[in-house]
Design brief:
Number of helices: 5
Distance between the termini: 56 Å
Strand order of the largest sheet: 1-7-8-9-10-11-12-15-16-17
Helix content: 10-25%
Keywords: Signal
Number of domains: 1
Order of helices and strands: HHHEEEEEEEEEHEHEEEEEEE
InterPro entries: DUF6588
Shape: elongated
Oligomer: single chain
Structural class: mainly beta
Length: 367
């Protein structure tokens, strides 16, 4: 049972090794113990710890769509390879256990109830004691301790990087389409796939005064990205002290456990740019909306207490014990520069927002 669910949760988020500094294995095992107490509490605790990561991932996916305020001409194209990095705000580095609405099956010890999120300090949080409980036919409550541990430490980092490749093609009427696609790919127990589409349209042509200003462009942009990833290597099994049945102790009984994660991110921007020789500067206003859904699929063992004498522990099976959704939206101001040399360009951008994002990349093509 002390297999780490959190480690698998966080491994499912990146496709390219986003998390190089995970919390200690002991801390990850402790999160596996959350499920030993109560499904509702497990969802609250894991969401509070991982919520900033789900938001940061979505805002990273919303970056890097454009590198100027001008749409490419008909038939022109480029291939871009870039990386985005989202910075977590200070308020996303801790959470308060006392505000989660936990049941009395989770008891927090110590003077402080403040615990680190994934982006928090690499220090243990408050001590938690997990109980299983039942009531006798006479209404007497029986409670037994099943685990005691500190809430997980943070990673000690507050930045989430993400690399992306993109193809952009110019269409008619000062319009440009951008496509992102990674087919569903499997490696060992991991699998992931990504797709996205964006559209940029020049509005300078519709404003007579601006249409006469050379080298100055204004466009509107909208884009959507969908990332699905999964980890199928979870092996959460019951402990002997929980008195599992012969079937529950048999090899393969809990096969099929895994973590599935879907991130949906869409963004809209109004961006203007000015080109001087080979350098283009651009700036604009950006809206970013994200949702990351995390689900534990399969059958999992949870210790319970029988309501009849001798009130022993037994293992109750539950399916999909974790199902949390992490949502966020924000407005930001972004600005960037592009250096274009023949068929090669290099560019960088920064978005000022609650979850600020930096981006840098290179492009190849006829644009």
């Amino acid at each position: 049972m002390r297999k780490s669910l959190l480690k698998k949760v966080l491994w499912a988020l990146p496709v390219v090794g986003l998390f190089l500094a995970l919390p200690s294995a002991q801390a990850q095992d402790e999160v596996g113990d959350f499920i030993r107490a109560n499904q509702s509490d497990a969802n609250k605790l894991i969401k509070a710890y991982a919520d900033p990561v789900g938001k940061a991932l979505g805002h990273s996916l919303n970056g890097g769509w454009f590198n100027s305020g001008k749409a490419m001409g008909l038939g022109r194209f480029d291939i871009r390879i870039f990386g985005t990095a989202t910075f977590a705000p200070d308020e996303a580095k801790t959470f308060d256990l006392a505000t989660l609405g936990l049941s009395d099956q989770v008891v927090v010890s110590g003077k402080s109830t403040t615990a680190p999120t994934f982006f928090g300090r690499d220090e243990d949080g408050p001590e938690l004691t997990i109980y299983a409980k039942t009531r006798t036919p006479a209404g007497v409550e029986i409670k037994q301790e099943v685990a005691s541990f500190n809430s997980p430490p943070g990673s000690g980092i507050d930045i989430l990087p993400f690399p992306i490749a993109q193809l952009s093609v110019g269409l008619i009427k000062d319009t440009e389409i951008a496509v992102r696609f990674v087919p569903n790919t499997k490696f060992d127990d991991f699998e992931a796939g990504l797709w996205g589409v964006g559209l940029k349209h020049g509005i300078k042509q519709w404003i007579p005064v601006l249409s006469k200003v050379p080298g100055f462009d204004i466009t509107v942009f909208g884009g959507y990205t969908n990332l699905k990833s999964a980890y199928r290597g979870i092996e959460v099994t019951p402990e002997a002290a929980d008195n599992p049945s012969a079937a529950q102790s048999a090899p393969g009984y809990y096969d099929g456990q895994g973590i599935e994660l879907t991130t949906k991110a869409w963004t809209a921007s109004l961006v203007a740019s000015k080109t001087l020789s080979v350098i283009t500067g651009y700036a604009g206003v950006k809206y970013s909306n994200v949702q990351t859904d995390l689900t534990a699929v399969g059958r999992y063992p949870v210790p319970s207490i029988r309501s009849t004498p001798p009130y022993q522990r037994y293992v109750e099976d539950i399916t999909e014990p974790i199902d949390v959704s992490m949502k966020d939206s924000q407005f930001g101001l972004n600005a960037g520069l592009r250096l274009k040399l023949a068929f090669f360009s290099i560019y960088g951008e920064y978005t000022f927002a609650k979850y600020s994002t930096a981006m840098a990349g290179i492009g190849f093509g006829w644009n």
